[in-house]
Amino acid sequence: MTAPGSTVGNSAASRDKAFVLHPYTNLHAHETQGPMIIERGEGIHVFDDGGKDYIEGMASLWCVSLGWGEERLVQAATKQMRQLSTYHIFGHKSHEPGIDLAEKLIGLAPVPMSKVFFANSGSEANDTAIKLIWYYNNALGRPEKKKILSRQRAYHGVTVATASLTGLPNNHRDFDLPIARIIHGDCPHHYRNGLEGESEEAFATRLAEQLEALILAEGPDTIAAMFAEPIMGAGGVVVPPATYFAKIQAVLKKYDILLVADEVICGFGRTGNFWGSQTVGMQPDILTCAKQLSSGYLPISAVMVSDAIYRACVDESRKIGTFGHGYTYSAHPVAAAVALETLNIYEERDIVGHVRSVAPAFQSRLKALADHPLVGEARGIGLIGALELVADKATRTPFDPPGRAGALVNGLAQDNGLIVRAMGDSIALCPPLVISEAEIHQTFDRLTKALDAAVPVLRG
Ligand code: PMP
Questions:
Q1: Which domains does the chain have, with CATH numbers?
Q2: What molecular functions are annotated in GO for this chain (predicted)?
Q3: What is the dihedral angle through the alpha carbons of 242, 248, 254, 260, rounded to the nearest 10 degrees?
Q4: pTM for the full model?
Q5: ipTM > 0.90?
Q6: Of 319, 403, 428, 445, which residue is the least packed, with the fewest Cβ within 10 Å?
Q7: Is pLDDT above 60 for 24?
């Protein structure tokens, strides 16, 4: 609480403005606008401090798969807190929650994986993957094979290295990024980057050819790995064109380049399969995941590595000693226990089966909005999707200035009791996986109202 005599008001909003530096927020606008305070959650709903009810159409930040108030996760956390509230796994120490979770993840992996490294966030998982790749190539005596391929509009995190991988200007500008040895290739967005009349397959072929040209220009012996989200999330929900990953992977294999699947959003049922890799046909050497791993209830992430990578790291460690990487909270026992219980719930309630049963309703309501006067493209798969708002549907001309239409619809959706996320002028939806078909219809009814209300403002 605010000290007596302070000029800061006592409300949460004024104390927020006084003390909190917000992530991913327009800091200047926040000084006048202030925060929206969320007080509690229940199922797929959250409630603000005025008691207003919102459908959380983004599952917080793409993570609250089981919705709010899942008592079994509360119980799992409480039980573990009492037994061993915290402990590390450095220097040969270990504990059962970490061991159990690693074993479970290896059993669930989409391709044979050997070991699991734990971290606390998606960014840390991807940062770890970069370090493992460099360590691996040093172990193999290829110190020059270190460059990492990413893609325009990719999102892989915000640490110095992972923000560099991220292919969005806002994450680079004024942060002096990207760092060296990170290369951005083409974004596989057919609607924006396909040529006129080009089929998805032809587009995928061209992207693979462009990737090969990029690799040859850089020198194949200098390129270690490529990172890719199965479905790009924060870059605007981009579903790759048919045959894309088969063609991309053939090129990577040819030049001995590893593939990292960033499953931070797609993992755990989001796309209608347990892993996004299965949906798009990726066979990664490294897989990173977070978010829905614990239904977002506690911070935890994981990096799974193939046996070849693990063996090379062991060899290097035999030569140089300790593998010098790890977080205080790697495999935090409470987070691990909650993640394990989350995975048990996914299995018991057949969460993938549920996603498959409700996804047709979600996708058909989403795709029907392609006919709306403001929508240029409606895209998605499983329980993830986006609407790209355009000034002119026929010419696909974006709104000017960019972002205004997205922000407007975002605000109108909120007025109508729906939280979505505007990424520029694309409106994303990624609801809790437990959403029912009736709730899907409510979600789209609210979104349609918001879009309709935006028409006179944007076209008027
Ligand atoms: N990778 C992907 C695909 C993501 O969507 C995100 C976060 N939205 C991250 C990595 C980074 O995760 P975190 O914010 O937990 O660091």
A1: 36-69+350-459 (3.90.1150.10), 72-348 (3.40.640.10)
A2: adenosylmethionine-8-amino-7-oxononanoate transaminase activity; pyridoxal phosphate binding
A3: -120
A4: 0.97
A5: yes
A6: 319
A7: yes
